Amino acid sequence: MRGRIKLGISFGLVVAGIAAISWNLAPASVAAVDPGDKGDSGDAQVISTYDGPMVRKRAAIGILPSKNADLDHIRAEVLALAKREKVGPLTESTFAVFNEHLLTYLVPQLTFIAPEGVSVTRAEAMLRDYQPADVAFHVTDTVLVHDLTFAVIPAAGVQPAAVSKELDEEGILTDSLNFYDTKVQQAGLTVHYFGAVVSDSTVSTVRKEMGRAANVPAERVLVEGTLPGPGVDLSDGVPALGNGGHSGH
After folding, report:
1. pTM > 0.90: yes or no
2. Which residues fall within 8 angstroms of residue 225, CB to CB, at 6 or more apart?
3. 19 pLDDT exceeds 60?
4. What pLDDT was estimated at residue 223?
5. pLDDT at site 43
6. Of 3.40.50, 1.10.3470, 1.25.40, 3.30.70, which CATH number belongs to 6-25+46-53+146-225?
7. What dihedral angle (degrees, nearest 10) is formed by the CA atoms of 18, 19, 23, 24?
8. Domain made up of 57-144: CATH architecture
């Protein structure tokens, strides 16, 4: 994380369990990486200055189903299996978490992310031993994910529920984030995003649109990591991710 200006502000009424959270202004440009120009197009790993605690290293599972298999049935099977084998609870995500090289050869139809601390080796062992019959092929790999919480207190007279409704109707968050969870609270609104690392321009778009709906400047929309801990520093590019990918039929 670099070039970030932070101003402490009490925000306990909006984000439950967080006594303080900081305003994050637009990060300064960094010569080593240029996240703004590339955006989120293509399959290459996005580099973001919203890193550190906001970026996590996780084990990912990609699933290719057998012909005519029911994806909902496979989803239920894999989630139940992970819970039983203590590899879960899994979080569903998009194939975009996987690296560009892997996506050249296959695009998983279902993608799951294991909790912090679960290794690729454990995830692979689970599928090697208990792969559901209607799964034709699976892949496991270490990936980077963004785990972000956006939060905003609307302007006086603007209700948080109205902000949420406007954002949903316009589809801005769906277009930008795909997978996200919105929570309306008495004092404000939070949006939790968990998935492939998104560019600074995408984060800026979300802040701008949340601010517009809440009738406040984009700078008043907070962006914080959801979990404590150092996370992953992307200031020098993508670090070595450890265990390579595994696959199986």
Report:
1. no
2. 52, 53, 54, 147, 148, 149, 231
3. no
4. 96
5. 59
6. 3.30.70
7. -40
8. 2-Layer Sandwich (3.30)
